[in-house]
Amino acid sequence: MRVFVAGGTGVVGRPLVEGLVDRGHSVTVSTRRRESFELVRGLGAEPVLMNGLDEAEVHTVITAAEPEVIINQMTALSGPSQDYSAWLDTTNRLRRDGTRALMSAARTAGSRRVIAQSASFMTRPGSGPTDEQSPLYVDAPGPIGIHIAANLAAENLVLGTPGVEGVVLRYGFLYGEGTAIGPDGDIVTAIKAGGLPIVGDGTGRYPFIHVRDAVSVTLQAVDRGGPGIYNVVDDEPAAQVEWLPYLAEILKAAPPSRISVAEAGEQIGVQAVYYGSQLPPASNAKAKAALGFTPDYPSWRDGFRKLFG
Question: Residue 267, class by beta-carbon neighbours within 10 Å (0-12 exposed, 13-18 middle, 19+ buried)?
Fold first, then answer.
């Protein structure tokens, strides 16, 4: 099968491309940098240059490749995230404008299916577990609301393009090699320095997913499961008050400090308040039933210890 991976040199993209090639697919990978060509060829795929925000270029590249399946992994999250709003800006544009260009090109190229990444940490604050039908926090303050709106716009484009099977994979917070929660990652560095506090009562429930499990379910989605949205998260939503001290202990760092919700909003930003104290848990039941998702790391507890222990 001809598969096109848009943005296939990132943390998820590299092992995903390797997995696709191992399964016998003919894989084309887009990258923004010519210096990544050698990496892509080393994975057994064909590299092409593509700026995901250049509509004409997206159309030319994808129609030339004539893929049966497109997997959209385009982000711009590899840089430092001190300014959360600025850090998300290009990714938000890729969600809105890049997805629009990609879906138009997919339709012209006659692609059968488009699989696109989104996020499972977008639901409205509440007390109970959430699933793919739960209301999103579209009126969230600041960069959280902007990012959720961009993700929702991308999801609607993927699911609403006539003639194309749209599959949205809402990944949880990724951990593993190359991520912020990996060796030398931003979050790990902050924990070691004592710079990541528990917010309020710390009851925000993080949906974690190991990179390998995210790749596994994405491979399954190439030829399994119907169109729709799937949460790609592990079996145990993690309260910040539990996972943060647990990881600090594994890293042999000092126990995390605590700050109030008001202090977190002023000193860090609205994202710290939402994730740390408001985020409801997300269920992976639909992905298990429809995509055969069986995580190798069903709990972040085992995953963190395996990664850092």
Answer: exposed
- Of 232, 82, 217, 68, nearest to 143 by C-alpha is 82
**pLDDT at residue number 126:** 85
Contact 2, 28 (CB under 8 A): yes
Q: Report, in angstroms and rounded to the nearest whole number, the Rg of the chain calculated over CA atoms.
A: 19
- The pTM assigned to this predicted structure is 0.96
Domain layout of the chain by residue ranges: 2-178+207-235+282-297
Closest CA to 8 of 60, 71, 58: 71
What share of the chain has pLDDT > 70, as a percent?
Answer: 98
Q: Do residues 186 and 180 lie in contact, with contact meaning Cβ atoms separated by under 8 Å?
A: yes
Number of Cβ within 10 Å of residue 56's Cβ equals 10
Determine the average pLDDT of the residues in 101-109: 98
Strand bridging mode 113-119 / 69-72: parallel
- Chain-centroid distance, C-alpha 309: 25
Q: What is the pLDDT of residue 142?
A: 93
Q: What percent of the chain has pLDDT over 90?
A: 94
How far, in Å, CA of 75 to CA of 93, rounded? 9
**Residue in 249, 255, 178 with CA at minimum distance from that of residue 212:** 178
Q: Which two structure tokens, joined as six digits, stand for 53?
A: 């925000």
φ, ψ dihedrals at 145, nearest 5°: -60, -40
**Hey, how many other C-beta atoms are within 10 angstroms of the C-beta on 42?**
11
CATH code reported for the domain at 2-178+207-235+282-297:
3.40.50.720
C-beta contacts of 175-180 below 8 A and 24+ residues apart? 175/208, 175/209, 175/210, 175/211, 175/300, 175/303, 175/304, 175/307, 176/11, 176/210, 176/211, 176/212, 176/303, 176/307, 177/11, 177/211, 178/10, 178/11, 178/211, 179/11, 179/211, 180/81
